[in-house]
Design brief:
heterodimer, A: D-Maltodextrin-Binding Protein, domain 2, 18 helices, 11 strands, globular, B: MetI-like fold, 12 helices, flat
Chain lengths: ~425, ~300
């Protein structure tokens, strides 16, 4: 009986010791978006570019007392997952997404200064950080970027006897020449107006016509004359038969597949396209050029950058310890030893200076893309209405594809967004 | 003896308790929450605010796409349920006959039903793809067409394709419901009718139809609910594009909530959908039950 009692005591003590040890641990809920097939590997499984182990293991080994409950979620589901968690009062501690401003009106985010060391803060590209400044505070940090350029099939253009178009008029001429030469078998120009990339299409054409999402004062200017003309031009390309036939349902990946097999002559896409084409077994002679702009207007490169942000959690007693844990995550993530692997894994462009040298050394073509990145325009993601605008411009484009009046559609969207 | 009677009184409730609890937690409770949310202010990020009356309902009904989506939903439910019921009934009649390979035919029929809807919709997406679709490839190779056809040339046609996939995956369910009804019909009834000189149509109208009616009622009511609530086919094939013109109510409220960030109107729409569904299923069941009672 005594033996049994002793054994029971030992077990109770052991249980208490284990729970006490875990009680001191801070567990961070982290949601990362799935950029490609390697994202899960790099964070949770075999590890790509992390010497066989994965990020979570490496982080927990380097930061005793901090556990990661990390979840990689597909882009299709991430809003549903995050919004549901917020509605249930269970927001993640750290979130990776393409926008942050929608969380500001509800005061859900933690200011960057609470969890970023001075050294790390100074490491981010300053131009990137400017977009995260709202009411004198930074609310997110960039995790990576990509730049868009015009990709064209050199052989198709040469055979059709056309030069790479630099203006909208030249684009129409080139498209007609390709249609004539290939008897409609090759689509001259790719357009994606799906919910995935409708906002990108809006940016390509409106920025190439001196318009855009906002005016010089940063106020929404969705229904400007330049924007109306730009969207009418893009819809005109579709109606003239110069593009893929179903822009409302054919995504960028459909276009990339067509481009890789020589079915599509030109498309605007990110810097990962060469890798994508190669992975698909495509063997085409391709090159890049600036995006065509309207006559007399400046061609604007389009950049996309995603973000990391931290959420408030007022239920935690020791806020300093939580902030330190988040800071430890950020510092570890952006450490060049880890971050270079993260960015290069899916051919993205970096957001911190300390990774540039190693990335250029690994892939010399990065340097040219970094120069493009420096001149890129970015979406106005710091504005709280961005999520609605993004979907709104896509709806305008899709309505216009079915014959709706572009001006009336953009006027309605502007009125809805600005409440005027 | 008294204890026995008492036990019989509460015993059924005891057995019903687990399922009642499960239904309460996983069905009733969420429904009540959605009702409450539909009268609350909800921010684009999902933070629930205070009571705002019917504002969400007013906003939902005044959305530009609302009427078109409701009309789509009506067409979607009517076409899928009616056509799949007719086709399922015919196939069930065929499969009820004795022929070589009947078991194999019945097994094959299960496939569309047993396969996930997302996979079904994705496969159909590839079949009807203009550029590399297998339907075009087959027709071209057979020499039936000389140029590839764009099977998705307008949103109206895309919507018809969505309905077709809906019918394709629903037919097996109807078939098996009707088949189970057919198998329970006493063969002697047909023999007696034949002796009296009844033909195929007479037997179908006066024996088969009345006796499989309970099975058809079950399959129709369940199909109205399943098809109305079906999300994967429309979402996988078009995501409602262009501009919600191929959306049904369920996909529309999802897009409204998680793409357009209008969560208040989205919850109001889900309540409206729930009430419509209750009404449809209720009217249908009451009508059928009344007729059965009269008979």
């Amino acid at each position: 009986m005594k033996k049994l009692f002793s054994l029971f005591l030992v077990l109770v003590l052991a249980f208490c010791a284990v729970t006490a040890a875990f009680a001191d641990d801070i567990t961070l809920d982290v949601i990362i978006c799935q950029y490609g097939p390697n994202t899960n590997n790099w964070f949770e499984r075999g590890g790509t570019g992390m010497d066989g182990s994965n990020f979570v293991e490496e982080f927990e080994a380097a930061n005793p007392g901090i556990k990661l409950n990390l979840e990689v979620v597909s882009w299709n589901d991430v809003h549903q997952v995050v919004d549901t968690r917020i509605a249930n009062g269970n927001a993640p501690d750290i979130l990776n997404l393409d926008t942050f401003s929608e969380f500001l009106p509800d005061d859900l985010l933690l200011p960057v200064e609470e969890y970023t060391t001075e050294e790390l803060f100074a490491d981010f590209f300053p131009a990137f950080m400017q977009d995260f400044l709202v009411d004198g505070e930074y609310w997110a940090v960039p995790d990576l970027a990509s730049a868009r350029a015009l990709y064209y099939n050199v052989d198709i253009l040469e055979e059709a006897g056309v030069e790479v178009p630099t203006t909208w008029a030249e684009l129409e001429d080139a498209a007609q020449a390709i249609i004539d030469f290939y008897d409609g078998e090759v689509y001259p120009w790719g357009i994606d107006m799906t919910t995935d990339e409708g906002q990108a299409a809006f940016a390509y054409y409106t920025w190439g016509n001196g318009g855009g999402f906002t005016d010089e004062d940063g106020e929404w200017a969705l229904n400007s004359d330049e924007n109306v003309e730009a969207i009418e031009y893009a819809i005109g390309l579709v109606n003239a038969g110069y593009t893929n036939p179903n822009p409302a349902t054919q995504t960028r990946y459909d276009l990339q597949d067509m481009f890789a097999t020589g079915k599509l002559a030109m498309m605007i896409g990110p810097n990962q396209i060469p890798t994508y084409v190669k992975d698909k077994g495509g063997d085409i002679n391709m090159a890049t050029a600036s995006l065509p702009a309207n006559e007399g207007k400046v061609s604007a490169s389009v950049g996309v950058k995603d973000v990391m942000m931290a959420f408030r959690d007022d239920s935690v007693e020791d806020q300093d310890a939580r902030n330190e844990a988040i800071s430890a995550f950020m510092t570890f993530f952006y450490d060049p030893d880890n971050y270079v692997g993260w960015v290069s894994m899916e051919d993205f462009l970096p957001a911190v200076n300390s990774a540039v040298e190693a990335l250029v050394e690994e892939n010399p073509s990065f340097e040219a893309w970094l120069n493009v990145l420096a001149t890129c325009k970015f979406y106005p993601t710091s504005k709280a209405e961005w999520a609605q605008v993004r979907q709104g411009v896509t709806t305008v484009e899709q309505n216009a594809l079915t014959g709706a009046d572009v001006r009336a559609e953009l006027d309605a969207l502007q009125a809805e967004i600005t409440g005027e | 003896m008294t204890t026995g009677i008492n036990r019989h009184k509460w015993e059924p409730y005891l057995w019903l308790l687990p399922s009642t609890l499960l239904v309460s937690v996983f069905v009733l409770f969420p429904i009540l929450i959605v009702f409450k949310l539909s009268f609350s202010e909800i921010s684009p990020a999902g933070v629930v605010g205070g009571f705002i009356g019917f504002d969400n309902y007013v906003e939902a009904i005044n959305l530009p796409a609302f009427k078109a989506v409701m009309l789509n939903t009506l067409w979607w439910v009517l076409s899928v349920v009616i056509i799949s019921t007719i086709l399922g009934f015919i196939i069930a009649l065929v499969l009820n006959q004795k022929f070589h390979g009947r078991k194999i035919a019945r097994s094959i029929l299960v496939f569309p039903w047993a396969t996930s809807l997302v996979i079904q919709a994705s496969v159909w997406n590839y079949i009807i793809k203009y550029e590399y679709g297998s339907l075009n490839n087959v027709l071209l190779n057979l020499g039936i067409i000389k140029q590839a056809i764009n099977f998705r040339s307008s949103y109206q046609i895309e919507f018809i394709w969505e309905c077709w996939v809906g019918i394709f995956v629903t037919v097996p369910f109807v078939t098996f419901c009707v088949l189970s009804g057919l198998q329970s019909i006493d063969v002697s009834l047909y023999e007696a009718a034949t002796m009296d000189g009844a033909g195929f149509w007479h037997k179908l109208r006066h024996i088969t139809l009345p006796l499989v009616k309970p099975s058809l009622t079950v399959s129709t009511v369940l199909n109205i609910i399943y098809v109305f609530n079906s999300f994967p086919i429309v979402y996988t094939m078009t995501k409602g594009a262009p501009a919600h013109k191929t959306d049904t109510m369920i996909t529309y409220l999802y897009m409204l909530s998680f793409y357009e960030r209008k969560k208040g109107p989205a919850t109001a729409l889900s309540v409206i959908g729930f009430l419509i569904l209750c009404l449809c299923a209720g009217i249908y069941m009451m009508t059928v039950m009344r007729k059965e009672e009269q008979q």
